[in-house]
Amino acid sequence: MKRGPIEATVVIENHPCQVIGLISELDLKASVENVKLGDNTTDHIMTFERKIDDEIVSEIKKRSIKSLRLSDFKVWVRTNGCGVCRLLYSSEIVVEKVKVIGPKTVLYTLLVLNNTALKDFIRKVSEGGSKVTVLNTTVVSDNELTERQKEILKLAYKLGYFDEDRKISLSELAGKLGISAPTLEEILRKALRKAVKYYLDKKVE
């Protein structure tokens, strides 16, 4: 049995989330971030790959309790809450990545406390009528970068965030990733600390 924090890639089919349903039904190129739970509702931030037009915003408004265009690429949406979102965002699970890959089908990269917590999550989601398939799991040590941290560091480097004459600001980079600037700052801080420790440990060896 695996011990310690685990990064797991899972696919959830028959996902009951209304926002996931919207993305599938309207064939939108969008990801979901910043989920906030209410008593009976869930708030989502939809981040689009391309500039959204008024027609799409209108369709989203019709199919949700409330919505608000935040920018050319982001829409805040409130819908009725679903069991899967409640499990994901109210438990001790860190949602690192979300990707809609088919009708009511979502690929998640999750960080869970241990193998027992992962099994418990799968059981509860399955009891709600959704199907969970675990694609892979990796034990994460304190010194290892998660896939999400690697992805963010690579993008930051590629876009010139670490250049002497910085080519992209923290806020701009956060916008491209669909997360807030404070959240990105914290992710970068932890990732860079791990990277520096790994480098120094290798030097000592």
TrEMBL record:
InterPro entries for this protein: HTH_bacterioopsin, RNA_pol_sigma_r3/r4-like, WH-like_DNA-bd_sf
Gene3D superfamilies: Winged helix-like DNA-binding domain superfamily/Winged helix DNA-binding domain
Domain HTH bat-type: 145-195
Pfam families xref list: HTH_10
Superkingdom field: Archaea
Transmembrane stretches, start-end: none
PANTHER family: DIMETHYL SULFOXIDE REDUCTASE TRANSCRIPTIONAL ACTIVATOR (PTHR34236), HTH BAT-TYPE DOMAIN-CONTAINING PROTEIN (PTHR34236:SF2)
Name of the protein in question: RNA polymerase sigma70
Taxonomic lineage: Archaea, Thermoproteota, Thermoprotei, Sulfolobales, Sulfolobaceae
